[in-house]
Design brief:
Blueprint: E1 2-3, H1 6-20, H2 24-40, E2 49-53, H3 57-71, E3 77-81, H4 90-100, E4 108-111, E5 125-129, H5 141-152, E6 156-160, E7 184-188, H6 201-204, E8 206-210, H7 216-221, E9 226-229, H8 231-237, E10 252-256, H9 263-274, E11 280-285, H10 290-296, E12 301-304, E13 322-325, H11 333-345, E14 351-352, H12 355-362, H13 365-368, E15 377-378, H14 382-389, H15 395-409, E16 412-415, E17 421-423, E18 429-432, H16 444-457, H17 462-488, H18 491-496, H19 498-506
Parallel strand pairs: 2-3, 2-5, 3-4, 5-6, 6-7, 7-8, 9-18, 10-11, 10-13, 11-12, 13-14, 14-15, 15-16
Antiparallel strand pairs: 1-9, 16-17, 17-18
Length: 514
């Protein structure tokens, strides 16, 4: 799914109106129908509701929703803010008159100046339609005070389209206490780019979308650098296997990792690779890992390093279709030297994870001299990213910096998090839709490394391998959570569900997991 900037969405709205002849008021009413459905399936009329509507189209969405709720037997209190008496947009004016025509029993107040705040409690549902994405400046004065009052009330807050005061785009200037903290955000047609950042999670809460029938032609022709990756897109990328194929058709994958006391990471990565369909998987590890690997993953080949406890040499003895380096590798000086020598001679893209990234952060010349092959895949979590590229104050800054670094070094960066982001050198960003908090466990990233390397061995391009691998890894985590719960699941459970995740994706049944 494409994710659009605020200005892009405004243009798509405009083109929809011009090309179809539909009015902006009808689009508002379509949105209100979807919003009303979402509200009524969650809260019955016994919950007291208060709607705060602003003077623009976001406020019109709120007024249209109020009309629908009243028709459904709800009794919302409606506050329409028209400070000075002349701020209302055309749609707000029309809907205000429609509400007034419903009769004297409607609890409707038009706020033109000072007013008395309603008493809010934990039982209340507050519907926030004060300001949408058209807001260009931070809230001030009375609106800022109102937002803080709503946030501190303890009420359940539903924001229409976007929490009031928040930007839909990437911006580092928001002050969270001056923005509505929604429990539920009902976005119109598309989620906003800013929804996918940890900084904004306490503002957005849960989010859902409602469709209003915007022009598919306008959507298709509007370019976007941001995407939300869903199962149907991954299904289209996966290839069916020929019944006449052999293991030679699915490539040879090499995993370089492990050290004394950290062989488990190499095992997990190997399991991820084997479950993802590579024809042959070989592990290059120190001699101390021989019995561990052979007993834990007998399907894999073992290539022993000359050193007993660490990886001291990464020069290849055979040809491999893909190489992943890092799980359990350690950061011994000899290991760093081995990685240095390897990267200086390697021309094809590789997967670099975990301690491979830590080795590079200790020898920054490997990065600054551009020794990392073009289109290699780096898979850092936040701390590893900051060690490599410099400390960032928050996730939003980190994502923006990742976009710069990906372009500068011509590498793919998988920035791991709740919405793991694949960042490409062409400035495109793909947010992943699968995964859960139970995956925040040791070894989870090692499994991901194996999955991606396995896909590369099978001939998928690095950017496609990263996209598929991230999605499948997250879906396997969701399956593991179904079985063990987020507290009880381990990285081994994720690896064990990789094959099932592929199967569900290819049969298009993965949407039943959550």
């Amino acid at each position: 799914m494409k994710l659009f900037t605020t200005s892009d969405i405004r243009s798509i709205d405009k083109e929809t109106i011009e090309s179809t002849g539909i009015s902006s008021l009808e689009l508002v009413k379509r949105a209100a129908r979807g919003i009303t459905d979402e509200i009524t399936k969650r809260w019955s009329p016994r919950y007291p509701m208060v709607i705060f509507a602003g003077p623009g189209n976001n406020g019109a969405d709120g007024l249209a929703t109020a009309i629908n709720l009243i028709a459904a037997g709800y009794h919302p209190s409606i506050y329409l803010f028209n400070i000075g008496g002349s701020m209302l947009g055309k749609n707000c004016k029309t809907l205000k008159e429609e509400i007034k025509s419903l009769g004297p029993g409607i609890d409707f107040i038009e706020v033109t100046g000072q007013f008395t705040l309603p008493e809010l409690s934990e039982r209340h549902v507050v519907i926030d339609s004060l300001f949408g994405t058209g807001l260009r400046e931070e809230l001030t004065g009375g609106f800022k005070a109102l937002v803080r009052y709503i946030n501190e009330s303890g009420a359940t807050i539903v924001s229409i389209d976007i929490p009031s005061g928040m930007s839909g785009d990437l911006t580092c200037s928001n002050i969270n206490r001056n923005i509505v903290h929604a429990n539920l955000t009902i976005a119109i047609e598309f989620p906003r780019i800013s929804f996918f950042l940890k900084n904004n999670s306490e503002l957005v809460g849960e989010w859902v979308t409602v469709k209003i029938g915007l022009s598919q032609e306008a959507i298709a022709k509007t370019p976007s650098n941001f995407h939300y990756v869903e199962g149907n897109e991954i299904k289209r990328l996966l290839r069916e296997r020929s019944p006449f194929s052999s293991k030679a058709d699915y490539g040879s994958c090499l995993i370089i990792g492990g050290s004394y006391g950290m062989m488990g990471a190499a095992v997990l990565s190997t399991k991820g690779a084997l479950r993802s369909g590579a024809g042959k998987v070989t592990v290059h590890a120190p001699q101390c890992g021989y019995e561990i690997l052979q007993s834990s993953v007998p399907e894999a080949l073992f290539d022993a390093d000359a050193h007993k406890l660490i990886v001291s040499d990464m020069m290849l003895k055979h040809r491999f279709n893909s190489i992943a380096i890092g799980p359990g590798l350690g950061t011994n000086e000899q290991t760093i030297n081995a990685l240095d020598n390897f990267l200086k001679t390697m021309k094809n893209p590789v997967v670099l994870d975990a301690d491979a990234l830590n080795c590079i952060s200790r020898r920054k010349s490997l990065l600054t001299n551009k020794d990392i092959p073009v289109l290699s895949i780096l898979t850092p979590h936040a701390i590893e990213f900051d060690r490599l590229f410099g400390e960032q104050p928050d996730e939003e800054s980190r994502l923006l910096h990742a976009m710069e670094m990906s372009k500068q070094y011509e590498i793919l960066i998988i920035l791991k998090g709740h919405y793991t982001a694949l960042v490409r050198p062409d400035s495109k960003v793909f947010f992943n839709s699968t995964g859960n908090a139970g995956m925040a466990t040791g070894g989870s990233g090692d499994v991901l490394t194996g999955v991606i390397a396995s896909l590369m061995a099978q001939g998928y391009k690095p950017e496609v391998s990263a996209l598929i691998g991230t999605y499948i890894h997250g879906l396997a985590g969701d399956l593991a959570s179904e079985e063990h719960g987020e507290y009880g699941m381990t990285a081994s459970d994720i690896a064990a569900n990789i094959g099932k995740a592929f199967k569900l994706t290819m049969t298009n049944k993965q949407n039943n997991i959550k």
